[in-house]
Amino acid sequence: MTVLKAVRGVGLMAIVGAGLLTATGAGQQLPAAARLLVQDTSLPAIDRGLRDQDAPRAARSRDEADRLRAEAADGLPYVRGSVIVKFKADATAGGIMAATRQVAGGTVDRSGWANFDIIDIPDTADPEAAAAMLRARPDVEYAQPRYRNYAMSKPNDPLYANQWNFPAIDMERAWDIQPGGTSNIIVAVLDSGVAFHSGTFRYNSRFAYRMVPGGPIYPALGIVDVPFAAAPELGTSGSTRFVSPRDFIWDDAYPVDLDSHGTHVTGTVGQLTNNSLGGAGMAYNVRIMPVKIIQGLWDEIFSSPNEGTDDVVALGIRYAADNGAKVINLSIGRAEGGAAPVVTDALRYAVGKGVFVAVASGNTRASGNQPNRLAQPAPDINGMVAVGAVGRTLESTYYSTSGSFVELSAPGGDQRAGGASAGILQQTLDLDLLETYERPVSQYGPPRADAFAYYYFQGTSMATPHVAGFAALLMQQGVTSPAAVEAAMKQFATDKGAAGRDDLFGYGLINPRATLRGLGLAR
Amino acid sequence: MTRRSPVVAALLLLVTAVSAAAQTRPSRPSTSRSVEIGGYVMVGQFSFAASESFDAILGTTSGAIFGGGATVGLPFGGLFVDLGAWQYSNSGERALVLDGQVFPLGIPLDVTIVPIEISAGWKFRMRKLPKLIPYVAGGYTSFGYQETSSFAGSGEDVDDRFGGYHLRGGAEFKVTRWLGVAGEFAWTTVPDAIGSGGVSQAFNEHDLGGTSFRARLTVGR
Fold this sequence. Notes:
The complex is a heterodimer. Chain A is an alpha/beta fold. Chain A is built from 16 helices and 22 strands. In chain A, the strands form 6 sheets. Chain A has a 7-stranded parallel β-sheet with strand order 14-15-9-16-18-19-20, sandwiched between helices. In chain A, strands 2, 8, 21 and 22 form a 4-stranded mixed β-sheet that branches. In chain A, strands 4-5-3-6 form a 4-stranded antiparallel β-sheet. In chain A, α8 packs parallel to α14 and α10 runs parallel beside α11. Chain B has an 8-stranded antiparallel barrel with strand order 1-2-3-4-5-6-7-8. The two termini of chain B are 37 Å apart. The N terminus of chain B is likely disordered. The chains are: A alpha/beta, B mainly beta. Chains A and B meet through α7, α15 and α16 of A and α2, β3, β4, β5 and α3 of B.
């Protein structure tokens, strides 16, 4: 991972070199790419309620989500300076060395959860060309650049009566049959982290940033202490609700959310329900495994040692499979770059270990309809489903990526067609207090991650956790094989669009109640 | 799930009756040319043709049946007509059938079958064995099928009656002039009663009928 730091450093130095400020407080030094848990407890979380009257927020797109990266890493869909390679089992040490030399590479780095290697290559080398060169070798199974992955949601303007998405798929009758699963089922949410832990982390904001091209420069904040709290609607910090947390962005066991995406997605999977608070979640009694595999902007501002590249995603998938997850939710991905064999390999590994995977199809329909590269293998993997999104009218949305890889649809919201409340409502971090970089420079300051509100988000990111939660309920009901879960979902899906499977809806809109009730003898 | 005890009891009854008959003076077979009316009760074991479907839902492919009816012997040789009904009921659970594999879902389901059989047949009188009366019959079956399960919405339970046909054959042993025991095999077909939904569709099974062995206790001439 040292390679990543070097790459980021090069990009950021351009800003530093332009005379912009860096600031670190004397006596408060942190390692360049590290954070410190300074207090393992915090004040109770702040719940600021439903935020449905906020001014419209710009939809998150690849470009905007990547605005820092555009400054720091030349906007490429991959990380320079390294490639991912998996050597065949019979590859010799000599062959590996030869392959490394062939791409003018250096260190071969392997993580404990990986069956692949990261080869350092010169920063000036083209990672796609280097990967192609490696793929041509007979002792290489696959090689690919370290493509970056992003959250698939489109936050927009920002309780159960407001959660149209659950009645739309007959969840009330489904919950009669299977009331939220049990703690025997673990759903891993591989995302930007989850608000699962209360405490204070110390970060170092070392560099100034221009948040948008041509925009004002936001200064480095220096050493900052950021308060975190567990989302009240997800569970209590330190409780058994959360199992085996892992942060592959910061390389520790505290995958706290500095973005809001992962917490919102987790809410749809398993927000606490029937507790007289907030809204509901699909599988509200299951345990949640928070696994952080993508960066939020704050993670980047704080110089996290890793970012959400394909290898990090693969590590997260393998980690979840090895630590008892039964379902993996991947509301992430990328439309840029080529295939992701390292992720596909990890997905096959997870499904082979009995883990069902739901992955977002993508949000690119209105902007070129490029598929989520991570979702494309879904038709070839029985036990992995690529999920498209429908709006409140249960029609396809303007953003939901279509294609032959789309297998099922679920509510993702369509605020263009139905207004703010046509999004998917869940509790997540209070964006007013989190995204201080949305303020004028004079009001820019450290974020708070201990305040929460209910926001409507839209995207295939929001559709996917409906399927993940549904899978958890099916597994609780006795359908334990990932392939059988997928087959059941398809068999009972409500056909939409063209008769039979189609590229917009796949096999149709998920129908949890009919699936969970199954078949009688004659009907 | 299989209820074998009534069948065993019926067989014991049959054996007991035959033994009793062997110890009593036989009565002469009826040679009456008048209408003869009798009744019967029966127990038996029904094996469903839709074996995979019943096995998936009820965990068994057969079960005990109980019934009864009336027989009218007509004054035309051995001709008789029979009106009978029987019942089968069992409990199981709803299931998913995925790639041929059955996943029970733990949702209780009850099946009740009540066929009504109208038969016409012929009794064969044997001079050398006047107490043993073989017979064959066939006719129409009105096959009542009821399926109820938990969490059913409006119209999701099944309570239908289907038309079918049956053939049966057996022999009656007159223990006394008015009391007899009989054993018979029957084949019933109720085509296209199932197979358009549920696990029967998944298994492509359409016939709600099957074969059965029945033991009867008859009263009357």
